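Appendix B. Chain record.
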Amino acid sequence: MASLRTTGHRAISARTPPHPVDWESFDEWQSHPHAELPAPPDGRHRARWTRVLVLGAAAFALWFVLFAPTLQHDAQVSPVGVRRTVSMDITGPVAALSRGLQLSHIVSATGRTNRLPGGTVGLTLSGPLGQGASSGGRTAPGRQGAARLTRATVPSNPKRPTAAHPLRVLIVGDSIGLDLGGPLQSDLAGTGVVSAALDARESTGLTRPDYFNWPAELASDIEQVHPEVVVVMIGGNDAQDFPGPPDTPFTSPEWNTLYAQRVTQFMQIAQSGGATVIWVGMPPMQDPVLNAQMQDINAVVQHQAAASRPPVSFLSTDKSLGTPQGGYTAFITNAAGQVVDVRAPDGTHLTTGGGAVVADQVIAQLRSMGYRIP
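C-alpha coordinates predicted for this chain:
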Protein backbone atom coordinates (compact mmCIF):
# COMPACT_ATOMS: atom_id res chain seq x y z
CA MET A 1 0.00 0.00 0.00
CA ALA A 2 1.30 3.43 -0.87
CA SER A 3 2.17 5.51 2.18
CA LEU A 4 0.52 8.90 2.73
CA ARG A 5 1.87 12.21 3.90
CA THR A 6 -0.30 15.18 4.84
CA THR A 7 0.25 18.73 3.67
CA GLY A 8 -2.34 21.03 5.20
CA HIS A 9 -5.72 19.40 4.60
CA ARG A 10 -4.59 17.47 1.55
CA ALA A 11 -3.44 13.85 1.50
CA ILE A 12 -0.80 13.26 -1.16
CA SER A 13 0.25 9.80 -2.32
CA ALA A 14 3.97 9.03 -2.10
CA ARG A 15 3.58 7.72 -5.63
CA THR A 16 2.43 11.04 -7.01
CA PRO A 17 4.20 11.61 -10.35
CA PRO A 18 6.77 14.43 -10.47
CA HIS A 19 4.72 16.54 -12.92
CA PRO A 20 1.06 17.64 -12.74
CA VAL A 21 -1.25 15.33 -14.66
CA ASP A 22 -5.01 14.97 -14.75
CA TRP A 23 -6.55 12.24 -12.63
CA GLU A 24 -7.22 10.04 -15.68
CA SER A 25 -3.58 10.06 -16.74
CA PHE A 26 -2.53 9.63 -13.08
CA ASP A 27 -4.66 6.49 -12.76
CA GLU A 28 -3.12 5.25 -15.98
CA TRP A 29 0.36 6.02 -14.65
CA GLN A 30 -0.38 4.10 -11.43
CA SER A 31 -1.44 1.07 -13.41
CA HIS A 32 1.98 1.02 -15.17
CA PRO A 33 4.46 1.36 -12.27
CA HIS A 34 7.36 0.05 -14.37
CA ALA A 35 7.00 2.60 -17.16
CA GLU A 36 9.68 5.27 -17.53
CA LEU A 37 9.11 8.38 -15.45
CA PRO A 38 8.61 11.66 -17.29
CA ALA A 39 11.80 13.56 -18.11
CA PRO A 40 12.90 16.15 -15.51
CA PRO A 41 12.00 19.77 -16.38
CA ASP A 42 15.70 20.77 -16.81
CA GLY A 43 16.07 18.48 -19.81
CA ARG A 44 18.28 15.83 -18.16
CA HIS A 45 17.94 12.27 -19.40
CA ARG A 46 16.78 9.73 -16.85
CA ALA A 47 18.74 6.50 -17.41
CA ARG A 48 17.35 3.11 -16.57
CA TRP A 49 18.89 1.41 -13.53
CA THR A 50 19.99 -1.48 -15.69
CA ARG A 51 22.08 0.86 -17.83
CA VAL A 52 23.66 2.42 -14.74
CA LEU A 53 24.51 -1.05 -13.44
CA VAL A 54 26.12 -2.07 -16.73
CA LEU A 55 28.17 1.14 -16.92
CA GLY A 56 29.35 0.69 -13.33
CA ALA A 57 30.36 -2.91 -13.98
CA ALA A 58 32.25 -1.88 -17.13
CA ALA A 59 34.11 0.87 -15.25
CA PHE A 60 35.08 -1.58 -12.50
CA ALA A 61 36.28 -4.14 -15.05
CA LEU A 62 38.45 -1.51 -16.77
CA TRP A 63 39.93 -0.41 -13.44
CA PHE A 64 40.59 -4.02 -12.46
CA VAL A 65 42.45 -4.75 -15.69
CA LEU A 66 44.51 -1.54 -15.46
CA PHE A 67 45.56 -2.07 -11.85
CA ALA A 68 45.68 -5.88 -11.77
CA PRO A 69 49.52 -5.98 -11.56
CA THR A 70 49.40 -3.68 -8.53
CA LEU A 71 46.64 -5.73 -6.94
CA GLN A 72 48.62 -8.90 -7.61
CA HIS A 73 51.68 -7.40 -5.94
CA ASP A 74 49.61 -6.35 -2.92
CA ALA A 75 48.30 -9.91 -2.69
CA GLN A 76 51.80 -11.35 -2.93
CA VAL A 77 53.09 -9.25 -0.02
CA SER A 78 50.03 -9.76 2.20
CA PRO A 79 50.20 -12.18 5.16
CA VAL A 80 50.41 -15.82 4.19
CA GLY A 81 47.06 -17.59 4.32
CA VAL A 82 43.87 -18.47 2.46
CA ARG A 83 43.04 -14.84 1.69
CA ARG A 84 46.44 -14.32 0.04
CA THR A 85 46.09 -17.53 -1.98
CA VAL A 86 42.61 -16.67 -3.25
CA SER A 87 43.66 -13.10 -4.09
CA MET A 88 46.64 -14.31 -6.09
CA ASP A 89 44.48 -16.85 -7.95
CA ILE A 90 42.03 -14.10 -8.93
CA THR A 91 44.49 -11.36 -9.82
CA GLY A 92 47.11 -13.56 -11.51
CA PRO A 93 45.40 -14.16 -14.90
CA VAL A 94 44.12 -10.59 -15.13
CA ALA A 95 47.58 -9.20 -14.26
CA ALA A 96 49.11 -11.33 -17.02
CA LEU A 97 46.56 -9.92 -19.47
CA SER A 98 47.28 -6.37 -18.33
CA ARG A 99 51.02 -6.84 -18.79
CA GLY A 100 50.51 -8.49 -22.16
CA LEU A 101 48.50 -5.49 -23.36
CA GLN A 102 51.12 -3.15 -21.82
CA LEU A 103 48.44 -1.35 -19.85
CA SER A 104 50.90 -0.80 -17.01
CA HIS A 105 52.32 2.12 -19.01
CA ILE A 106 48.99 3.91 -18.64
CA VAL A 107 49.06 3.45 -14.86
CA SER A 108 52.68 4.62 -14.71
CA ALA A 109 51.74 7.79 -16.57
CA THR A 110 49.34 8.69 -13.75
CA GLY A 111 52.17 8.62 -11.22
CA ARG A 112 50.42 6.01 -9.07
CA THR A 113 53.47 3.74 -9.14
CA ASN A 114 56.11 6.40 -8.45
CA ARG A 115 57.02 5.20 -4.99
CA LEU A 116 59.79 3.17 -3.46
CA PRO A 117 59.20 -0.18 -1.78
CA GLY A 118 58.87 0.29 1.94
CA GLY A 119 57.26 3.71 1.66
CA THR A 120 60.33 5.86 2.39
CA VAL A 121 62.79 7.98 0.43
CA GLY A 122 65.80 5.66 0.55
CA LEU A 123 69.28 6.17 1.94
CA THR A 124 69.90 9.58 3.52
CA LEU A 125 73.24 10.94 4.71
CA SER A 126 73.92 13.46 7.43
CA GLY A 127 77.13 14.71 8.97
CA PRO A 128 80.56 15.93 7.81
CA LEU A 129 80.55 13.77 4.65
CA GLY A 130 77.00 13.97 3.42
CA GLN A 131 74.95 16.80 4.87
CA GLY A 132 71.43 16.49 3.51
CA ALA A 133 72.33 14.08 0.70
CA SER A 134 69.93 11.37 -0.36
CA SER A 135 70.41 8.34 -2.53
CA GLY A 136 66.79 8.32 -3.65
CA GLY A 137 66.65 4.55 -3.28
CA ARG A 138 68.73 1.43 -3.64
CA THR A 139 69.11 1.46 -7.40
CA ALA A 140 69.56 5.19 -7.94
CA PRO A 141 72.18 6.53 -5.51
CA GLY A 142 72.85 10.23 -5.24
CA ARG A 143 76.22 10.49 -6.92
CA GLN A 144 77.36 13.59 -5.12
CA GLY A 145 76.59 12.34 -1.62
CA ALA A 146 77.90 8.83 -2.22
CA ALA A 147 81.04 9.95 -4.06
CA ARG A 148 82.42 11.58 -0.93
CA LEU A 149 81.97 8.37 1.03
CA THR A 150 84.85 6.38 -0.43
CA ARG A 151 87.33 4.09 1.24
CA ALA A 152 89.96 6.82 0.92
CA THR A 153 88.23 8.72 3.72
CA VAL A 154 88.50 5.83 6.20
CA PRO A 155 90.70 6.95 9.13
CA SER A 156 93.49 4.66 10.32
CA ASN A 157 91.71 4.42 13.68
CA PRO A 158 87.93 4.76 13.37
CA LYS A 159 87.58 4.78 17.15
CA ARG A 160 89.18 8.24 17.18
CA PRO A 161 87.09 10.10 14.61
CA THR A 162 87.62 13.72 13.64
CA ALA A 163 85.75 16.18 11.45
CA ALA A 164 88.23 15.49 8.65
CA HIS A 165 88.02 11.73 9.13
CA PRO A 166 84.58 11.07 10.64
CA LEU A 167 83.29 7.73 11.82
CA ARG A 168 80.78 6.37 9.32
CA VAL A 169 77.66 4.80 10.81
CA LEU A 170 74.89 3.11 8.85
CA ILE A 171 71.46 2.74 10.50
CA VAL A 172 68.94 0.33 8.96
CA GLY A 173 65.57 -1.00 10.04
CA ASP A 174 61.81 -1.13 9.73
CA SER A 175 59.33 1.53 10.90
CA ILE A 176 60.41 1.06 14.53
CA GLY A 177 63.99 1.29 13.30
CA LEU A 178 62.97 4.56 11.69
CA ASP A 179 61.69 5.76 15.07
CA LEU A 180 65.20 5.14 16.40
CA GLY A 181 67.04 6.15 13.24
CA GLY A 182 65.86 9.74 13.09
CA PRO A 183 67.06 10.77 16.58
CA LEU A 184 70.20 8.61 16.33
CA GLN A 185 71.21 10.04 12.97
CA SER A 186 70.65 13.57 14.25
CA ASP A 187 72.59 12.99 17.50
CA LEU A 188 75.53 11.34 15.74
CA ALA A 189 75.77 13.98 13.01
CA GLY A 190 75.56 16.67 15.67
CA THR A 191 78.82 15.52 17.22
CA GLY A 192 80.70 16.82 14.17
CA VAL A 193 82.82 13.68 13.98
CA VAL A 194 80.27 11.14 12.71
CA SER A 195 78.75 10.78 9.27
CA ALA A 196 75.44 8.96 9.78
CA ALA A 197 73.49 7.25 7.01
CA LEU A 198 69.89 6.11 7.52
CA ASP A 199 67.90 3.62 5.47
CA ALA A 200 64.69 2.56 7.25
CA ARG A 201 61.64 1.18 5.46
CA GLU A 202 58.08 0.90 6.75
CA SER A 203 56.29 -2.47 6.71
CA THR A 204 59.49 -4.40 5.93
CA GLY A 205 61.44 -7.19 7.57
CA LEU A 206 63.40 -10.37 6.94
CA THR A 207 60.51 -12.80 6.39
CA ARG A 208 59.18 -11.26 3.17
CA PRO A 209 61.95 -10.60 0.62
CA ASP A 210 59.23 -10.82 -2.04
CA TYR A 211 58.03 -7.43 -0.76
CA PHE A 212 61.36 -5.84 0.10
CA ASN A 213 64.76 -7.54 -0.23
CA TRP A 214 66.66 -6.31 2.81
CA PRO A 215 69.84 -8.36 2.20
CA ALA A 216 70.20 -6.77 -1.25
CA GLU A 217 69.38 -3.33 0.17
CA LEU A 218 71.94 -3.66 2.95
CA ALA A 219 74.62 -4.82 0.51
CA SER A 220 73.94 -1.77 -1.67
CA ASP A 221 74.03 0.57 1.33
CA ILE A 222 77.37 -0.84 2.44
CA GLU A 223 78.79 -0.41 -1.05
CA GLN A 224 77.80 3.25 -1.02
CA VAL A 225 78.61 4.20 2.58
CA HIS A 226 81.48 1.85 3.56
CA PRO A 227 80.41 2.02 7.22
CA GLU A 228 82.62 1.23 10.19
CA VAL A 229 79.52 0.71 12.36
CA VAL A 230 76.14 -0.73 11.35
CA VAL A 231 73.14 -0.31 13.66
CA VAL A 232 70.16 -2.59 13.00
CA MET A 233 66.65 -2.39 14.44
CA ILE A 234 64.34 -4.70 12.55
CA GLY A 235 61.82 -7.42 13.35
CA GLY A 236 58.52 -5.68 14.12
CA ASN A 237 56.88 -7.17 11.01
CA ASP A 238 58.59 -10.58 11.08
CA ALA A 239 56.08 -12.53 13.18
CA GLN A 240 54.38 -14.09 10.16
CA ASP A 241 54.61 -17.22 8.05
CA PHE A 242 57.31 -17.61 5.46
CA PRO A 243 55.63 -17.89 2.04
CA GLY A 244 56.13 -21.14 0.19
CA PRO A 245 55.30 -23.33 -1.34
CA PRO A 246 55.04 -24.81 1.13
CA ASP A 247 54.31 -22.06 3.65
CA THR A 248 56.33 -22.22 6.88
CA PRO A 249 54.09 -21.39 9.87
CA PHE A 250 55.32 -18.87 12.40
CA THR A 251 56.67 -20.39 15.68
CA SER A 252 57.15 -23.81 14.09
CA PRO A 253 60.63 -25.37 14.56
CA GLU A 254 61.19 -24.98 10.82
CA TRP A 255 60.32 -21.29 11.05
CA ASN A 256 62.82 -20.70 13.86
CA THR A 257 65.56 -22.40 11.85
CA LEU A 258 64.78 -20.43 8.71
CA TYR A 259 64.55 -17.10 10.55
CA ALA A 260 67.85 -17.79 12.32
CA GLN A 261 69.41 -18.32 8.90
CA ARG A 262 67.99 -15.01 7.66
CA VAL A 263 69.30 -13.16 10.71
CA THR A 264 72.75 -14.74 10.37
CA GLN A 265 72.88 -13.82 6.68
CA PHE A 266 71.96 -10.22 7.51
CA MET A 267 74.64 -10.03 10.20
CA GLN A 268 77.25 -11.40 7.81
CA ILE A 269 76.39 -8.82 5.16
CA ALA A 270 76.58 -6.06 7.77
CA GLN A 271 80.03 -7.28 8.82
CA SER A 272 81.26 -7.87 5.26
CA GLY A 273 83.16 -4.59 5.10
CA GLY A 274 84.71 -5.04 8.52
CA ALA A 275 82.06 -3.01 10.35
CA THR A 276 81.10 -3.38 13.99
CA VAL A 277 77.44 -4.39 14.23
CA ILE A 278 74.98 -3.36 16.93
CA TRP A 279 71.54 -5.00 16.78
CA VAL A 280 68.81 -3.27 18.80
CA GLY A 281 66.05 -5.58 20.04
CA MET A 282 62.33 -4.96 19.71
CA PRO A 283 60.77 -3.14 22.68
CA PRO A 284 57.96 -4.49 24.88
CA MET A 285 54.58 -4.24 23.17
CA GLN A 286 51.24 -3.22 24.64
CA ASP A 287 49.39 -6.06 22.91
CA PRO A 288 50.16 -9.29 24.80
CA VAL A 289 50.14 -11.44 21.66
CA LEU A 290 52.48 -9.12 19.77
CA ASN A 291 54.67 -8.80 22.85
CA ALA A 292 55.09 -12.59 23.03
CA GLN A 293 55.92 -12.68 19.32
CA MET A 294 58.58 -9.98 19.71
CA GLN A 295 60.11 -11.91 22.60
CA ASP A 296 60.45 -14.89 20.27
CA ILE A 297 62.06 -12.67 17.61
CA ASN A 298 64.46 -11.17 20.16
CA ALA A 299 65.43 -14.62 21.44
CA VAL A 300 66.43 -15.81 17.98
CA VAL A 301 68.38 -12.63 17.24
CA GLN A 302 70.16 -12.61 20.58
CA HIS A 303 71.25 -16.23 20.11
CA GLN A 304 72.57 -15.57 16.60
CA ALA A 305 74.34 -12.40 17.76
CA ALA A 306 76.25 -14.33 20.41
CA ALA A 307 77.10 -17.10 17.92
CA SER A 308 78.34 -14.67 15.26
CA ARG A 309 82.06 -14.41 14.58
CA PRO A 310 82.96 -11.72 15.36
CA PRO A 311 80.11 -11.36 17.85
CA VAL A 312 77.32 -8.88 17.21
CA SER A 313 76.36 -6.60 20.09
CA PHE A 314 72.69 -7.11 21.01
CA LEU A 315 71.04 -4.24 22.88
CA SER A 316 67.88 -5.14 24.75
CA THR A 317 65.26 -2.39 25.06
CA ASP A 318 63.07 -4.32 27.51
CA LYS A 319 64.09 -2.14 30.44
CA SER A 320 65.25 1.04 28.70
CA LEU A 321 61.77 1.40 27.16
CA GLY A 322 59.83 -0.75 29.65
CA THR A 323 59.25 -1.35 33.31
CA PRO A 324 62.04 -2.57 35.61
CA GLN A 325 60.65 -6.05 34.99
CA GLY A 326 60.75 -5.58 31.21
CA GLY A 327 57.02 -5.06 30.73
CA TYR A 328 55.24 -2.50 28.60
CA THR A 329 54.90 1.10 29.73
CA ALA A 330 54.12 4.27 27.83
CA PHE A 331 56.17 6.46 30.21
CA ILE A 332 59.57 6.05 31.80
CA THR A 333 61.59 8.11 34.25
CA ASN A 334 65.04 8.99 32.93
CA ALA A 335 68.27 9.40 34.88
CA ALA A 336 67.45 13.08 35.45
CA GLY A 337 64.18 12.18 37.14
CA GLN A 338 62.08 13.39 34.19
CA VAL A 339 59.03 11.51 33.01
CA VAL A 340 59.34 10.77 29.29
CA ASP A 341 56.57 9.65 26.94
CA VAL A 342 58.33 6.91 24.98
CA ARG A 343 55.58 5.03 23.12
CA ALA A 344 53.17 6.03 20.38
CA PRO A 345 49.40 5.67 20.95
CA ASP A 346 49.36 2.39 18.97
CA GLY A 347 51.40 0.73 21.72
CA THR A 348 53.93 -0.46 19.14
CA HIS A 349 56.01 2.40 17.76
CA LEU A 350 58.25 4.87 19.54
CA THR A 351 57.69 8.55 20.10
CA THR A 352 60.49 11.01 19.38
CA GLY A 353 61.31 10.81 23.07
CA GLY A 354 61.42 7.03 22.90
CA GLY A 355 63.69 7.13 19.89
CA ALA A 356 65.99 9.53 21.73
CA VAL A 357 66.19 7.16 24.71
CA VAL A 358 67.36 4.29 22.50
CA ALA A 359 69.68 6.60 20.56
CA ASP A 360 71.40 7.47 23.86
CA GLN A 361 71.64 3.75 24.59
CA VAL A 362 73.34 3.06 21.25
CA ILE A 363 75.80 5.94 21.67
CA ALA A 364 76.61 4.76 25.19
CA GLN A 365 77.31 1.30 23.76
CA LEU A 366 79.65 2.78 21.16
CA ARG A 367 81.54 4.66 23.85
CA SER A 368 81.83 1.51 25.96
CA MET A 369 83.35 -0.18 22.90
CA GLY A 370 86.07 2.48 22.74
CA TYR A 371 84.66 4.90 20.16
CA ARG A 372 85.50 8.46 21.21
CA ILE A 373 82.26 10.24 20.45
CA PRO A 374 81.71 13.64 22.14
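Further analysis of this model is presented in Appendix C.
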